[in-house]
Design a protein that fits this description.
Mean pLDDT of chain A: 93
Number of strands of chain A: 17
Strand content of chain A: 15-25%
Oligomer: homodimer
Number of helices of chain A: 14
Largest sheet of chain A: 6 strands, mixed
Structural class of chain A: alpha/beta
Shape of chain A: elongated
Radius of gyration of chain A: 27 Å
Largest interface: A-B, 69 and 68 residues
Chain lengths: 415, 415
């Protein structure tokens, strides 16, 4: 890590993390933000509620890195040891901050409660610390010099952490290292392309030494691609590659900010006023649940059917018994008929239908686990597509199928 | 950490973890298994694909702890540096294992492919390492003595990690420290009780010094409780507390192994042959999706409706317009009528219906965000319940509502 790229270490604190009762999502979120403003993130540590171990970690990280960001351990119970550990690492005492005590009492009073004595712990801070206001919960954070480094202690709950990070940590870090190397970070989310097909078309952009550096993650049917550029021309280099990227993957990109494909598709439906209905067999309501996770979707979503049994496909969607007999429920003609039925019954402009073999049982030689058909009825048009998804587990096959269906609709709306 | 409680450190390796593209779920899973057999887990570290940093971490951890378990960095690319870092930390060279190279060639041949040259990297191991077979993927693991500690290097993909952990690491660790303190771990999953109500009824069991030690995590409507007992009488102490726990929380416990409430309810439905249908408004298919995530549920699940619009509630479920007008869609009478309609239309013995205000918009003074009603029709009986869930966000309200509905059904089936 060069002098122009200040180093940062992240420490997540809590027995619940060590025990696996909660996963540490904070560190990765903080790391992405820090690397995007030119810091070099060395690593994360996860440690339990153990005073000595936390203090030792703080000393070691602050003796090595410019910035140490800790999350958790700021609550009112005896297990919350971040304040004490920081004081120990800095070689200072804890002291009561009357203004914080008053604020805490006010917080409880405003809710018609008396502050429990234990919460007074949250008003003690290492001498010399700057207290950071918590606008979301009760646990204030703090900033403290330890050796050559600066420790930021943030609350563990993600909404509280995130608010304090954006408001107190990042502006301070930007100002404290004005000479740091410039950096710029961007991302794209793609659907309808496999990781290997993407790697082939991205070519040299993906090489380890490439600038900007590219990272790709596949999530059951969608890809998230991050671009990180460093150096004086970071912004310009990122902008140039982003423009090339948009051109090369014009059909596949569905968003440059929102990783959830359902949100992108839902946004288009709402903006264009395209009404939608769904009919699902193997995905059992998952497509409807994803679509209805979009705020405001009630303006266009007309409803859906979970027609697990053949009988329900006939009764609710008017799929003909003969079609089911001759092709089987998992077939392109049945996917089409389900979509057509859902559109007709609901009166929506568009209808998506899914039928497939999610597994683990029910697969045959002809119709193996992972075989999925999607039907789409859009105004006068009726189309269908089939996929043989990798039989990687029931929930993955279902998630994959839902993403494939959403992408089919997205592409049809783009035509 | 006493001599009877061997210490373990976990190291997760990969740029994709540091960048937040993947979350490290391996460490928590390994920690839970290790603490359950009497190890003291000191902490986790997450580090990028950086040879020096990985080697330095291995040296430090192995110099301090009996057991170091690393995950990731065993693939065929130049970014996969775990083998080299371990060799460096142990002060040995990498050497080619012909038997592994032959196995890798065979793996590719069996799939009709020629092994790419790069995969030969996976046949090089630190001198003195014991190679661990990978029965799930291509990346073998290894065990290596470093200083006073023992390093296990496992592949990063969770199914591969998990198989190697159970088969190669835990049996070895049990045998290598026969004198270690005994430990026993158990868990319970509860529904229909808040975290604070649980804490009150659990009382002294939850105190920090209590034996067994209890940990509780709340997940939108369900609680997971872990019990960890240590010492010679660990098994007996755990068994006694577990029996008391079962008695005290008899109504709330739905499983002692499966955290997913839908699985427990689905299992009961399948075992007893109770057919089910669903009708959803605010949860938009989420209840159906959860139920159909249970393998084998097609034997009893008759299907569902997502009746987002009032029109759909009338047309599909026969809810009367007058009922919707006088009580509003989010009301107990409408929840009942939806359940009754779903049962009648589907011919199922049981039907669950949900209607509510998921937010973020749509709340009023009388019907705020978080207000949810669930209707249950079971044979001749018709009941309904309402909740005012905390308005913690659309997806959480919906998840909470689904769990509340599943619990209502679970309790009705237990009567």
């Amino acid at each position: 890590v060069s002098a122009q790229r200040p180093a940062a270490s992240l420490v997540a604190i809590g027995d619940e993390l060590l025990a696996g009762r909660i996963a540490d999502g904070n560190s990765a979120a903080i790391a992405a933000r820090l690397s995007g403003i030119g810091f070099g993130v060395r690593g994360f540590a996860v440690v339990g509620d153990d005073l000595e171990q936390i203090a030792e970690l703080f000393s070691r990280c602050a003796g090595r890195d410019e910035l140490v960001i800790a999350t958790g351990g700021l609550g009112p119970t005896q297990d919350d040891l971040t304040r004490e550990a920081a004081a120990r690492a800095a070689g200072v005492e804890l002291e009561l901050r009357e203004e914080v005590a008053a604020w805490l009492r006010g917080w409880f009073a405003a809710r018609g409660r008396t502050m429990p004595d234990s919460n007074l712990r949250q008003a003690f801070f290492p001498a010399g610390a700057d207290v950071l206001e918590n606008r979301v919960g009760t646990a204030p954070g703090f900033r403290l010099r330890i050796g050559r480094g600066t420790l930021f202690a943030l609350p563990g709950p993600p909404p509280e952490m995130s608010d304090m990070l954006e408001r107190a940590v990042l502006p301070w870090a930007r100002a404290a290292w004005p000479e740091r190397e410039a950096a710029a970070r961007g991302e794209f989310h793609l659907a309808g392309i496999s990781e290997s097909a993407f790697a082939e078309r991205a070519g040299a952009w993906m090489e380890r030494g490439a600038e900007p550096r590219m990272g790709v993650t596949a999530h059951t049917g969608v890809l998230s691609v991050s671009l990180l550029s460093r150096g004086a021309a970071a912004e310009a280099v990122l902008a140039a590659r982003s423009a090339e990227f948009r051109a090369r993957f014009a059909e596949e990109i569905y968003s440059d900010e929102q990783p959830d494909l359902a949100f992108s598709v839902g946004r288009i439906l709402i903006e264009r006023g395209v009404t939608l209905a769904t009919a699902e067999s193997c995905t059992g309501g998952m497509l409807a649940a994803r679509i209805t996770s979009v705020p405001g979707i009630s303006a266009v979503y007309r409803g859906g059917w979970v027609t697990y049994a053949d009988q329900a496909k006939q009764r609710e969607l008017g799929v003909e018994a003969e079609l089911l007999r001759s092709h089987g429920a998992v077939s392109e003609p049945v996917a089409r008929a389900m979509a057509a039925g859902a559109r007709r019954e609901s009166g929506a402009r568009a209808a998506l239908a899914l039928t497939g073999v999610a597994g683990p049982g029910g697969g045959t030689r002809e119709k193996p686990v992972g075989l999925v058909f999607c039907g789409l009825a859009l105004d006068g048009e009726l189309e269908a597509r089939g996929w043989r998804l990798p039989p990687v587990g029931r929930e993955q096959v279902r998630t994959y199928a839902v993403n494939a269906a959403l992408d089919l609709l997205r592409r049809a709306l783009a035509r």
